[in-house]
Structure formats: structure tokens, C-alpha cells
Amino acid sequence: MPDAASPVHDNTKMFRRQLSWVLIFLAASIVLQGVGAVLALYEAERQVVRGRIASDIHQGFVQLSATKQHLRAWVTQHKIGAGGNPQARSGLLQDMNGTLATLTQLAQRASSLGLDGLGYEEHSARLEALRVLGHSVQNLGAMLGELKTLPPDVPARLGWDTLTEVFDRSEGRDVRALIAQSIDRESLAMQRERKAADTTLTRIRWLWIGMALSLGMLSLGATVYFAKALRRPIDELVKGAQTLRQGQLKHRIPLNGHDEFSDVARSMNAMATALEKHSQQEAKQRQRLETEVRERTSALHEANRSLQQTDTRRRQLLADISHELRTPTTAIRGEAEITLRGGERSAHDYREALQRIVSTTRQLGAVIDDLLAMARSDMETLSIVHQVVDLSEPLAEALSQASALAGENHVRLESPSLPQGTVYVMGDAQRLSQLLLLLLDNAVRYSFAGGVVSVSCSPSLEDPTSVQIQVSDQGIGIPAEDLHQVFDRHFRGNSARLHRASGSGLGLPIAKALALSHGGSLALHSPADDNRGAGTRVALQLPMWRSSSVCTAEERKAQAGSGLSDPQGDQPTRT
Predict the structure, then answer these.
(1) 132-155, pLDDT tens digit by residue?
(2) What is the per-residue pLDDT across 467-506, written as a single tens digit (0 to 9) for each?
(3) Predicted confidence (pLDDT) per residue in 194-218, tens digit
(4) N or C: which end of the chain has fewer CB within 10 A?
């Protein structure tokens, strides 16, 4: 069984193996070409250096010969007394010594690079020539140091022979012939190196052309082969992918070989089968969801219909209550008018009339209780967002809104004791502004024209961790018997009705509910009940918030003296 499966495994790697071998071969060719490029560059550089050294040696011998001729001319002028600067002589000798030293170094480099085309003999001849020339330059230097102008009685021929012997002979050899032989030898070496460089460059050029053509032909062949081998399976895969993308999940890619593309085709066919199965399941799920949505929609319609019916019943209830309020009120008024229009009646008749009025009043009270219950439930649904609030902001907003009302009633608002810093409380800024406006509105409406409404803010004497806002007026005040009812809904005392006929009696009850919802308290005191003068003072107490949870006595004292500002200034926390 393993033997039967192994060929399939080998075939499965067919394209991968072929592509790997081709890529390896191409990579090896590129590496080989790179190595050849490095070697060719090295050889070309070597040939350039050899040619430059050969040219420099040849140029050195030519320059040495020319300098020697200049020195001969200087000596001739000096001998016959026609001039000759000693500095010029020294410069020529120095140039000759420098040229010999340079030629010696170049000869050593030429030997190390194998520049001697005839072997060791050429290098030996070059060194021998340099040695003889060096000895000749030394002799010239020694002779020229003692050179004097010929006397007039000495024949010129004698001086010329002496110069010829020194300039042209050294160690028994003819220096001029030696220099000429060296120049000819180095000229031949220079030509030889140029020819060798040309040959090397031609060989490198053809090598590169051959390698480029070979690599190009191999790449072209591999491209053509793989293009033919890959065209059909890739076309089938692309066609199959496009068909599946169009939603035709029953389509299958017809590739059943043992190569990589057939593996991809089988995977895509398996994926299409799984997608077809999931699509069928999705269709069933969608049908089930549609059924559930229809059922839920029907239930929502029923609930909406029920809510509409409830709203209709509520509206009808309000209409009935309005009618019920009107009916007993009319009955009470009618009973009283009938009783008052008649003549003198007995006490029994008045008692019966009063009993009928009491009965009707009880009916009216029941209707009013229903209204109060509805109003109370609405009040309890007020939403309050608790967050850290700077109390000075809602206080300023309430004072701004109340100033217009005070102006209409010819009442003056005063705020002599407001905090100079920041006072943090936890609550809803909008509701706090509503609460403060209710207190200010109540104080203004029950004040006399020309009166004063004063607002103060200071630490609570009972609890230093709380802030107390007081609203005081100089109005009608509240009798002692009415103080315990002022926070009841719709309650209005006689003095309030006489001062201001309109009003619902809901201001203070709503204000107290808002104060309680903020964790505070609302207290009311009227001097009218203790014979110390008229007016009312409302005290609102709210818990303060600050950045630290512990408040020491020194901090509380400093806080009270600075107008309730929070000394920490960071994120407030409740104390």
C-alpha cells in the first residue's frame, strides 16, 4: 500500500519540483555570472595596472635621458664660462635621483605582477641598467661638485673629452647605449602589455556575451515551458472562481490530476460543496427567521393596539374626570344659590342643604384625589442624571431667569453672599436650576411691590460638609397654622389666595421632591408666625462634594472663610 501511494506523492510535487530545479539552475547561473564578473573585473584591473606600470617605466627612462641631456648642457655652459646656476644643477641631479628611485620601485612592482614577458632575464637587465645609471649619477654629482671653468690657455677639446668620459661611461659601459636599450626594452614591454590587455578585454567581452545569451535562452525556455504548462489549469481555476463568485455553487472545476493545481481545484470543489450545503441551511434559517419576524411583528402590532387602547382610555378618563369636576362644582354652587335665594327657612332645611353640599364635596374630593394621584405618578417619573456639578452655575442661571419676573413685580433681587470659588455637589444641573428657580419664583410672587428678595450661600452650621442656600423675602409670610401644609400638593393658604388668586399649589411640593432626590432637604420658616415681622425664609441644604473623602476641622474652617471653594481642584469626591 505505501509503494502504491508513493508515485502519487511524487506526482503531487511535479510542478513544485520542476519549478524548484529551474529556479536553482537560474540562481546558480546568476551566481556563476557574478563570480565571472568578479574575476573579469579583477583581471581587467590587473591588466590596467600592468599597462600603467609598463608605461610609467618607459616614461621614467625617457625622462631620465632628457634630464641627463639638460645636465650636460648646464655643464657645458659652466665650463666655457657662459653661465650655469648651481641651484639648477642641484635640481637636475635631484630629479635624476628621484627618477631612479621611482624606476626601482616600479621594477619591483613589475616583477611581483609578472610583467617580465621574457622571464627573469628582462627583470635582471632592468635592475642592472638602473644600478649602472645610479652609479653614473653618483659620479656625476661628485664630479660636478668640483667642476671649474676652463682657463683660457687650456684647449676646449680637453674639457669636452673629460665631460664625455664622465657622462657617457660608467663601469666601462656606454651609458647612452644603456639608456637607449632600456627605452627600447620598456617600449616593447608597454606594447606587449597593451596587446595583452586588448586580448583580455576581448575574451571578457565574449565571455559575458555568451553567459548573457545562455542565461537569456534558459530563462526564455523556462518561461515558454511553464507558460504552456500553467495556462490551462490557471484558466480553469479562474473560470471556476468566477462561476462560484456568481453564485453557481453547483459548478465543479474539471481538474483531476495529481499536481498542485488539481489539489487547489479539489479544495475549491470541496469548498463549493460546503458553501452549497451552508446556503441551503441558511435558506432554511432565513425562512424560520422570517416566520419568527412575522410572529413578533404581529405581537408588536397587538401590543401597539393595546397601548393605543390604553391611551384612549386614559384620554377618556381625563375627559370623564373633567366632567365630574364640573358637575359637582355646579351642583354645589346651585345648592348654595337655591338656599340663599329662598326666604327664612328652618334649621332642618339648612342642615339638609349643608348635608347635600357635603356629599357633593366628598364626590369632588374623590375626583381631585384621582387627579393628584396622576400628578404624583408623573412627578415620580422625572429623570435625574447625577453627576458632579458646580453649584454656582445653576444658581447663576436661576438668578438670571428670576430677574425678569422680579422686574415685572417691582421686586429687587439681592445676592450679597454668593461663593467666590467652586462648590461641587452631586446632582442634575438642569433640575438644580429648576429647584432654585421654583424657590425664587415663589419668593417674588408673594412679595410686595418694592420689596427685596435676598439669596445667600454658605456652609451649613449643622453640617459643615453641606452647603446651605437661603432665599428670604419681605412678602406676606405664612401663618403658623399653614406651615405644616405648605409642602402638600395643591395647598394654598388664605393669605396666598388673597394676595394672588391664580396658582396651583404645586411649586413648593415639587421643590421639596427635587431636593430629596438630590440627597438634600428643604425647610421653610416664616417670621409672620412669631410676630417678628412679615416675610419667609426657605433653607435648601445640599451635600457638598470634594476631592478628598476626609475633611479636617482646619480645612472646614478655611473652607468656611473662603466662600466654600474646593481647595483640591481635581476630580471631586463625596465627603
Answers:
(1) 888 888 877 777 766 555 455 545
(2) 999 999 888 888 888 888 888 766 777 787 788 766 666 6
(3) 888 888 888 888 888 888 888 888 8
(4) N
39: cell is 574575476
**Pair 137, 89: CB distance under 8 Å:** no
Residue type, 467: V
Residue environment code for 426-437, b if the CB has 16+ CB neighbours within 10 A, otherwise e: bbbbebbbbbbb
- On whether the CB atoms of residues 418 and 454 are closer than 8 A, the answer is no
**pTM for the whole thing?**
0.37
DSSP for residue 478 = -
Collect all residues with Cβ–Cβ distance below 8 Å to 236 and sequence separation of at least 6: 253, 254, 255, 261, 265
CB 335 within 8 A of CB 356: yes
What is the spatial distance between Cα 192 and Cα 115, in angstroms, rounded to a whole number? 9
> Residue 322's pLDDT is what?
60
Average pLDDT of the chain, as a whole number: 75
Owner of C-alpha cell 673629460: 162
CA 33/CA 31 separation, integer angstroms: 5
**Rounded-to-integer distance, Cα 428 and Cα 438, Å:** 15
* Assigned C-alpha cell, 302: 397587538
The 8-class DSSP code of residue 318 comes to H
User: Tell me, what DSSP letter sits at residue 383?
Assistant: -
The confidence band for 555, taking pLDDT boundaries of 50, 70 and 90, is very low
